[in-house]
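Protein modeling request. Please complete all fields; requests missing the sequence field cannot be processed.
Requester role: graduate student
Desired output: 3D structure, token encoding
Chains: 1
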Amino acid sequence: MQEALTNILRHAQAANVSVIVERRHDRMLVIVEDDGVGFDAEAMMNTPMKDRRLGLLGMQERVELIGGSLTIESKPGFGTTLYVRMPAFPRLNGGS
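Delivered output (96 residues):
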């Protein structure tokens, strides 16, 4: 969530941001949505890992480390929505 909000502040030129955190049983859903300038999410996610923007890559790596998934919906001129689905009680690599 922190990286998403930092990216919004740096890049989105958004007037409004909403954050929803929902827990259902053993899963969590975090939605971060803005009304900013947006970007071509499909093109960005299909870009080779070495050429991606570090903020998005870092978010994706951290979510995957805890057994979650990241979905990004955005198009230029229409804002951005991030969906993070993850275990409510993640086990970190190397943890007990």
